[in-house]
Amino acid sequence: MRLIDSHCHLQADRFDADVDLVIGGARLAGVQRILVPGWDPASCRGAIALVDRFPWLDASAGVHPHDAANVDDEAWQEVARLALDERVVAIGETGLDYDRLRSPILAQLANLRRNLRLAAETGKPAILHCRSAEGEREAQDALLAELRAFGRQPPPVVIHSFSGPVDYAEAMLELGAAISFSGLVFRRGEEPSADVVRLVRADRLLVETDSPFLSPPGAPRARNEPEWVAVTAGWVAEQRSVPPDDLGEALVATYDAIFPSARRIAPG
User: Fold this and answer.
1) CA–CA separation, 249 vs 227, rounded Å?
2) How do residues 75-119 score in pLDDT, each as one tens digit?
3) I want to staple 60 with a disulfide (CB 3.0 to 4.6 A). Which of 37, 82, 120, 163 is the partner?
4) 239 φ, ψ to 5°?
């Protein structure tokens, strides 16, 4: 089965000692595309450095809502410069997190808006994190409001590691969003994801690990790795009643359409 990992933080310090082996393990498991998202200036530089070493990877550059209050104007200008690099195919990870609130909501909103403006200016899709406290939906509703504020032409977006109610997903799909599913779908409280994954058109559907986080069943809880995207992809195939090989072909085609890159190099 051909696989993708549309969101994998391989530049995180948990991979410092053996990132080469982790990437090799992903290749052996059939992973043919990996996107490495940044979350602050240093991690954006780290993502690009990995693409230099492994040219079949892709990078993104942006500021995570957790870091919204910590990235000043000078640091943001660095992120915006990095976003213009040809090795960077997306903006983010950005978004809103009203669950852990590691940055104040107003700072998160300001950060989201500048990331969305950057996505609109560059034409690169914005990768959006969105979390509310369990049983709540304030962040999802706020994210929809921010996208709708762009009028009829919001920037292209990918909802990373989907979490939320079905009507939120429907509204995002109406805005043209792609939706990516991670090991989060196996957790208590995320049951609506099974309904959502059946709603998403094949050309808007992605899977991911969010490594080193969100380990699916069977993966080490201390460190998720891109090879474990196979577990989530298997769940998607089951929910959609499609053969795994057919799903894999569609996932690769969708990834390449959403994250076009003149530098696309087949993994060797």
Assistant:
1) 17
2) 999 999 999 999 999 999 999 999 999 999 999 999 999 999 999
3) 37
4) -65, -35
Give me the DSSP letters along 18-79.
THHHHHHHHHHTTEEEEEEE-SSHHHHHHHHHHHHHSTTEEEEE---GGGTTT--HHHHHHH
Residue pair 201/169 in contact by the 8 Å Cβ criterion: no
Instruction: Compute the distance between CA of residue 256 and CA of residue 32 in angstroms, rounded to an integer.
Output: 11
Order of strands across the sheet with 157-159? Answer: 3-5, 31-37, 57-61, 88-97, 126-131, 157-159, 178-181, 205-207
177 vs 7, 126, 174, 214, CA distance in Å?
16, 10, 7, 22
Nearest to 80 by CA among 105, 115, 108, 55: 115
Q: 227 and 29 in contact (C-beta within 8 Å)? A: yes
Tell me what the mean pLDDT of segment 183-199 comes to: 97
Note the residue count of the chain: 268
Longest dimension (CA), the chain: 49
What 3-state DSSP class applies to 191?
coil
CA angle 67, 179, 103 (to 5 degrees): 15
Average pLDDT over the chain, rounded to an integer = 96
Mean pLDDT across 130-158 = 93
Residue type present at position 121:
E
- Chain-centroid distance of CA 57 in Å reads 14
Judged against a pLDDT cut of 70, whether residue 268 lies above it is answered with no
